[in-house]
Amino acid sequence: MASRRRRWRLRKRTRRQVQGWGAVVAAAVVVWVAGHWTMVWPVFMAVLAAVVAAGAGWILLRSHRRAVDQDRRWRAQEEARARELSMADVDALSWQDFETYIAGLCRRDGCTKVVVSGKSGDLGADVIGYLADGRKLVIQCKKYAAARGVGSQDMQRFVGTARPEHGADVALFVTTGRTFTSAALGLALRQDVVAMHRDLLGSWVKGAHLESLIPLNGSGGGTRRRPPA
Fold it and tell me: Which of 3, 10, 90, 182 is the most buried (most CB within 10 A)?
């Protein structure tokens, strides 16, 4: 017990000493600052101004980033809505008129010798033409409901004819459907077939050039990714 009391007294005395020295140092600082106020004041104001400027800059940066993010989301929503407004007219077309419409988009973007099959038994070549650089373009058109996806069987049939039967340099599968199934898209990427779903078609309808859309191949944007074989 005596040993414990001694340790307690020692800690208490040490704490008082530390507090006392702290008070002395604080008083010395106050006295020094008071004696050198004309020198300290500009430094103090400069530090305060720097802190205020840094805080204001941080707030402005956050506000700017928030505004940029909001603008980016708004633009994406507006572009999606504009595509859907344009696609409403496309949805009203018959499958024959849809093929003719796709041929018109090709001609708009500089394709030449564009012809439309317009009949069954065309072995997947609904539209054939040549890109501006001379490559042969073969297009399979599928006029599907917006919510419907393109399955692997449709893609398999096109893969089997686009190059072996028609000698396509660029094989394009375009649909009004929302998506390609993962199996269909994987097959398209492995076989170098461009998969143009509803969103990409909407961009084409809105004026994007065909050759700018080809590298997107099945995505909503960005670079093309080829899955492992």
Answer: 90
